[in-house]
Specification:
heterodimer, A: mainly alpha, MetI-like fold, 75% helix, B: alpha+beta, D-Maltodextrin-Binding Protein, domain 2, Dipeptide-binding Protein, domain 1, Dipeptide-binding Protein, domain 3, 7-stranded mixed β-sheet, 4-stranded antiparallel β-sheet, 28% helix
Chain lengths: 293, 541
Amino acid sequence: MSAATTLIGETRGPARRRTGVIGAGAITERIILVACLGLLGLFAVFALWPSLLTWQDPFAADRSLILAPPSLTHPLGTDEIGRDVYTRIVYGTRSTLALGVGAVLISLTLGTVAGLLAGLAPRWVSMIVMRGNDIGAAFPELLLAILIIALFGGGPVNAAIAIGIAGIPYYVRVIRAETLKIRRATFIEAAHGLGLSRTTVLVRHLAPNALRPVVVIATLGLGGATLAGAGLSFLGLGTAPPAPEWGSMLSNARSFLGLGWWAAVFPGLALTLFVASTTIVGRRIQKSLEGRR
Amino acid sequence: MRITLPRRRLLPAAATTALALVLVSCGGGQSADAGDEPVEGGQLTVALRDEPVQLNPLVDQGSGAHSVRPVVDSLVWDNGDGTYSPWLAESWEVSEDASHYTFHLRDDVTFHDGEHLDAEAVKANFDFVVDPENRSTGSTAKLQPEATVVDEYTLEVQLEAPESSFLTLIAAPYFGILSPRQLQDDPESLADTLIGTGPFVFDEWVRGQSLTYTKNEDYAWGPEGTHGGPAYLDSIRYVFLPEDQTRYNALLTGEADMVDYIPAEYNQEVLDSDEYTSDSFLLPGVGYTLHLNTRQEPFDDVRVRQALLHGLDREGIVASSTFGAYPVQEYLAETTPDFKQDLENTIEFDPDLANQLLDEAGWDERDSEGYRTRDGERLSTEVPFNSENQLDQRTLEQVQIDARELGFEVNLLPVPAAEHSERMYNGDYGILASFQSESTGMQLWRLYGSDNVSDGETIGSNASFLSDPELDELLAQARQSADPEERAGYYGQAQELLPELAPAVPLHSRARTFAAQPYVGGVGWDYAWPQPYLYEAWVNR
């Protein structure tokens, strides 16, 4: 979508942009952004107050309605157990997103500490941190997560920790690079010149600025981490049945694509929409941060 | 209960439609009919579910036995109705107490390596399964058969204890007769190559892909009732497709000539279809059953076990989890030779009785989530299951829903296959769900007899750890009754007794359904351990 809008912008040429008229591309972009924010808001409501938007029980099964197509009582159909797919998507939002959010928080916290350390500590410490980081980064994220689960066992908490740890290397790199850049910036030199203590400079001036890009990568990373979490549940390594979770819903329904596509397509759609929304919103934040600079 | 299921629906999702179109256009190519007359030549590609871990059928009754039948013959042929026909043995005698068997062998049989089949050769096979070094876990090994050569073609077998089902056990592919030279000189090689007397010769096993057999031109000893001579096919190629949907697709696309283990959800559709030839056999034995660990709380109390037995809507669970394809069963599947037709003590669905039993057992308080408690402890149990098996998972999720109604918490624990067998070995479970099939009532002894409990050295097949003297006595009587009717009588009494002891909740009998392209003919059944028999199969492309 963003590729298409850029294209429109380019063909119209830079002349229009200079005149200050908002092009069709920018309007589309804004509509998409608002839609994405709306979707993320909706998912937030799903996760926080699931009972607000559905009146059914995610565990209630009707044995006479196995893989029933979408209808008025079951707007998105029923699954292979006879449960309402819509209700399970709504109730599954919390566990699905909890995996992603939990993983991002873990990567974020540990990655920031390690990144600041690598950027500020003596060269040999930095060497050790970064070489260890390179080894971690050499493994594909999901593979590393599966390795961690193989060692410590499955389940939702372990899955979040596994994805969180697997995601650390990326954060370390960005934070370290940003720290190295900022520590030589004039305003830091000025702060030192004013006689502020090292701790004050670190806490009040260096860290907040180095952390700015973190907002972007955390938002962008949220989609990826959620997808990885759903992937682990798809493989049976995350949430245990019968708890609703998008990845395991997809996994259970995949055998019935020919008999009841809705049981697999709608959880997949929810996941796609969530990941796409976080990516689009993340890119937007990234642009505005860059624009300010 | 009726289940409404879409027969064949237009798939609104564009991607799925495209996929379906590809599948249909690929599958529609062949229209040749197999005809009634066998045709010589050609290869048959069969899609199986599980790839064997190893091939040697004498070591275990696992996956290997599903794919070695074309290479190995047995001493007798099981007709599936309690009678037997000659195969490698021309005739045999059974002692009155069913503990002593004498076999008179054919004198014209040679193994694929040129070895001649005689009493010594068959003795080598019995010796192999009883040798503790070979760690054979099969039913035959459990009987400790001691073989003695009488003359060149006569062999006597003495069992440790009487076993009236012995002929069924040795008719199965897991007692296929192997070359004595291979057994004695190169037992290591048995894991990945087999030398038997069968109509097909082992050719190649490419792990992860396929297992190929080629025709044995010298074959002339097919079981009674067959044409007897060499097979019609030039070769058989097994491919292994564990994913249900993928295996089914192999039939639709024509990638496989024949697909075994049609998944339950497509069972009826395949049987009704004019596009394929298909056949289905309801597997005998103990079937798909929830074994309750009687050594642990809460199932150490017979009332709790009975409560689960009567508190689960077995009909409803089975109908929905198997898409109506498989029938609900009692402690034995109806197709088992020793199944009691006029069973009086059938398992009735009675939630009131179940609740009453749980109250009596002391689980009469409820916690905030509605589960029953006793002295502040929740009525709860754990079911480890192999998450790759979707039918198991669906069934267990339905069980969980019904148990919840009773205030009984059933936690499902998906575990990898390796951990599953380890837990089974250690008795580390509340409920163990398993599917067991053997064409004899003797399976009741294997599953519920106290001498089949794990003892730390051997893996016992008695997963509920039940130990009941009355049942043990009945099973022992049945096993020493050479007369089939007398035997069935004792097994019948055992079937009447089992609901009282409630060591397990039987759920469904499983149908083994295969489907083949229309140009495939002559596929039969081997009834000893029901599976398609490919000796007389042919392809007419």
